[in-house]
Every structure is written in structure tokens, then in C-alpha cells.
Please model this.
Amino acid sequence: MHIQDIPTPPQKPVYERRISYADRIADFKNPTAKKLLATIARKQTNLCVAADVTSCKELLELIHQVGPHICMLKTHIDILHDFHSSMIKQLKELASQYDFLLFEDRKFADIGNTVMHQYEGGVYHISDWADIVNAHTVPGPGIIQGLKKVGASKGRALLLLPQMSSSGTLATGDYTQKTIAMATQEHEFVIGFIAREYLAPNFLHFCPGVQMQEGGDGMGQRYITPKFAIEAGIDVIIVGRGIYKADDPGAQAQQYKKAGWDAYQEQL
Model:
């Protein structure tokens, strides 16, 4: 399927009503989507911590601090300067111990055949341990097909990036709408979006760039609050520096967990 063959979806629906996480489980066929929603409901947290640390020791210490308070951990496995294969075993064990999912923020952005090998092989063997990965849609629908060929049989899930939280992003307008259209064609594998707002029904929405205070970091990142994100229709808030740079990441994670969950409950 070529991108020009994909119908442009109707005007983006307005987010109107919050449905409970537990009640939405039946809306998905993908086992990872079901598992994530069940985890959120069970642990009463819609918080994902972005663990953008650069050593295995930092990553493991952070997990022990925030693990009880999160539904998902977002990794950048390729920035660990001391990565070793046994790290994957430890990640999987801790995800099971603390009951959260693993999201590798790989942002695949190549043709289908290339991303298939990046996902399955190489040094990191991402498809063997990451419940969720994400991808840009610049290459067209073939990128979804390449990742699906590897991940679908393992019950994995894909998020697309119709938007980004950085200032000056080109992921807007027609690009956003065509990305949503691609997702609707592959709803059993594509479970949602990295986004700043509600984009489409029957998908999960994950928002990066969340901080307790709105603002920016001087390098293009724009922050919004947990309450603002949830009220905009976001399902999972992603917090990075606001937690892992804190003096007490565990305590800070508890605050974000409470803020996100309180905002969700207010909408029910």
C-alpha cells in the first residue's frame, strides 16, 4: 500500500468523555494493549518514566526507585555506554517484579526491510524484550509492515508518532492526519500514538514532555502538566528529567503518579 492510497481521515474528533482503563480493555485485540490497560487499572497509575540515563547502574537504581509507581518504563537502550547482554535479563526480571511494561523508544524511521532487522537482530534484539516500540511514518506504511512482521507473532505493539513535543516539529497537519490513517489500517498491531492531545478513538495516547510546571528546557522541548495532558485526552503521561534528575526519584514518581491518577479520576 502506498501512502497516496491511504484515505485521509475525517477531521480530528474532539475528546469528550473519559472511559475507564478497565472498560477499554475489550476495545483492543492486541495482547500488549490489554496488558497495559490491566496494569494501569491494577496499580492505579498512568505514569511512564522515561529513563534517559546513560549507564546500566543508573538505570537499575532508577527502576528500583520508581518501579512500584509506574505502568511502563521508557528506555533508550542504545545510550547505555556500558551495555551488556545480561542487562536485558535484568530489565525483564525487574519489569516482572514491579509489574510494568517495557517501551523501547527506538523511533524507527527507515524502510520496512531495514527496520525489520533493526527490531529483531543487531546488538539489542529489541523484539525479544520490549513490549512496545515506536516509529516515525516518514518512510510510509512499509515501516509498519516491517515491524509487524517481527513483532506481531510475539504479541508486541507499535506506537506511531503523528506529533512530537519539540518546538518547530514538522509532525503537524497533513503528516499527522496521514499517520492516523496508517494506524487505522493496522489497528491490531498499532495500538496508539505519541501525541500531545487526543487524536482518534480506539487508540491509546501517550504524552511526553510532562512536568509539574509548564515551560521548556532551552533545547526545544516544551513541557505540559499532568493535569493538562490527561484533560486533553492523554492516557499515559511520560515523565523524564522531572523524575530521574530529582534528588529522590521515588518520591517524585509518587507525586506524578498521584497527579496523573487524580486527573483521570476527576474525568470519570
In short: The chain has ten helices and ten strands. The two ends are 39 Å apart (CA to CA). Residues 50 and 74 are 5 Å apart (CA to CA).
